[in-house]
Write a structure and sequence with these properties.
alpha/beta; 6-stranded parallel beta sheet; 12 helices; 338 residues
C-alpha cells in the first residue's frame, strides 16, 4: 500500500436522523430520533444533519423539526459537548432559510443550513420548483442573510454522475456549479451521488477535477448512495483522490422522502426512483467506520458504540438494514477459539 495516496485521518458526519429517516413510511418517534442523535454525539460525531425545515405537509417525518432541535440543544446527556457539535438543517427554499434564521435568533436553531442545486435542469425544477436562474438568485440572497445571522451554509451539488430523469450528465458542469456556489458565499460543498449512479472510476476522476480547481479539502464533502452497491468502493476512490470529509447513515438507510406515510399517500418528492425501501440509502456508517479502522485511517469515533447504536436503529425502524458489520462484526484481533 506504499503507493496508495490515502489520508491518515478523515472527518465523518452522520445524517441518519434527516436523510435516513425521511424515507421511512412510518412515524419515527421524536424520542427515538433524539436518542440516536445523543448516541452519535457520545460516539464522537461532531457534525450531524438533524432535520429538514421545509413544509412538513410534503415530508411529514419532519413535523417535529422544532421540537427535535430544541431537544438536542437542551439534552442533559450531551450538555458537556453540544457546544462543539455542528447541527445542520436542510433548507432548500427561502421560507425554510427564514425559519432557520428565526430559530437561530431564539437560541435553538441549527448552526449550518443546506441548499441544493442539480446540474440537471429537469431535476432542478422537480426538486426546488425553480429553474437554475431563479434558484441561483435565491441562493445568493439566502446565503447573505444566513451569514448575517451567524449561520454557515452548505451548497449541495447533485446529479453529478447522472440524472434519473435526463440520463447522463457532465462532470465538468458539477465543477462549474461548485465554483459558483463558493463564489456566492457557500462555506462548503456537498458533492452528492443522490441515486447511486456513480461508478468508482468516475468518482476518482470527478474529485481529482474538483481538488485541482479548489484544493482546500475542508470545503468538500462526499455523499454516496448505495443503490447499486458501490458505496464503499466510491469512498475508496474518493480517499485516493484526496477527499477527507464523508457522510453516512446507520444501516445505510435513507433516500427520497417517503410518498406513502402511516397508511396514506403523501406527496413526498414524487414517485420513488426505486420501490424497494432497502434498495436505496447511503453508505452504511457502521461499515464505513469499521473499514476505515481496519485501514488504519483515524476517525476519532467509538466504533463499538456506533455498532450498538446501529443495532438499535434496526429496532426503531423494525427491519434488518444494510450494514454488513452488524451481521459479521469487527475483525477479531486475537484467536477466538472454536
Amino acid at each position: 500500500m506504499a503507493n496508495w495516496n490515502l489520508p491518515k485521518r478523515v472527518e465523518l458526519a452522520d445524517i441518519t436522523v434527516r436523510d435516513g429517516f425521511q424515507h421511512e413510511e412510518k412515524w419515527i418517534p421524536t424520542t427515538a430520533k433524539l436518542w440516536v442523535l445523543e448516541e452519535l454525539i457520545l460516539a464522537g460525531y461532531r457534525r450531524l444533519e438533524v432535520t429538514n425545515l421545509g413544509n412538513p405537509k410534503a415530508m411529514p417525518q419532519f413535523a417535529d423539526s422544532d421540537e427535535l432541535l430544541k431537544g438536542i440543544r437542551e439534552s442533559r446527556r450531551v450538555e458537556k459537548v453540544i457546544a462543539d457539535v455542528e447541527l445542520t438543517a436542510v433548507t432548500i427554499r427561502e421560507k425554510a432559510v427564514d425559519r432557520a434564521i428565526e430559530a437561530r435568533a431564539e437560541g435553538w436553531g441549527p448552526d449550518r443550513i443546506l441548499m441544493m442545486v442539480s446540474t440537471s435542469a429537469t431535476h432542478m425544477k422537480k426538486n426546488s420548483g425553480l429553474d437554475h436562474a431563479g434558484y441561483w438568485a435565491e441562493a445568493e440572497r439566502c446565503i447573505r442573510k444566513a451569514h448575517d445571522a451567524g449561520l454557515k451554509v452548505n451548497g449541495t451539488v447533485s446529479t453529478i454522475w447522472g440524472c434519473p430523469m435526463e440520463g447522463p450528465t457532465k462532470l465538468e458542469d458539477a465543477v462549474t456549479f461548485t465554483k459558483r456556489f463558493l463564489a456566492i458565499g457557500a462555506d462548503d460543498i456537498e458533492h452528492a451521488d443522490h441515486d447511486g449512479s456513480a461508478p468508482p472510476d468516475r468518482v476518482y476522476a470527478y474529485y481529482s477535477m474538483v481538488l485541482e480547481a479548489i484544493p482546500d479539502v475542508a470545503r468538500h464533502v462526499a455523499h454516496f448512495h448505495v443503490t447499486r452497491g458501490w458505496g464503499l468502493a466510491n469512498v475508496l476512490a474518493a480517499l485516493q483522490a484526496g477527499i477527507v470529509r464523508y457522510e453516512s447513515t446507520l444501516g445505510g438507510i435513507g433516500g427520497q422522502p417517503a410518498n406513502f406515510f402511516e397508511g396514506s399517500p403523501v406527496s413526498g418528492t414524487g414517485r420513488y426512483y426505486y420501490q424497494d425501501p432497502n434498495n436505496v440509502g447511503l453508505v452504511s456508517g457502521e461499515d464505513l467506520v469499521v473499514m476505515l479502522d481496519e485501514m488504519g485511517i483515524e476517525t476519532g469515533l467509538d466504533v463499538d458504540r456506533i455498532l450498538a447504536t446501529g443495532r438499535m436503529v434496526e429496532r426503531i425502524v423494525g427491519r434488518r438494514l444494510r450494514s454488513e458489520t452488524l451481521k459479521s462484526g469487527r475483525i477479531p484481533k486475537k484467536p477466538t477459539g472454536f
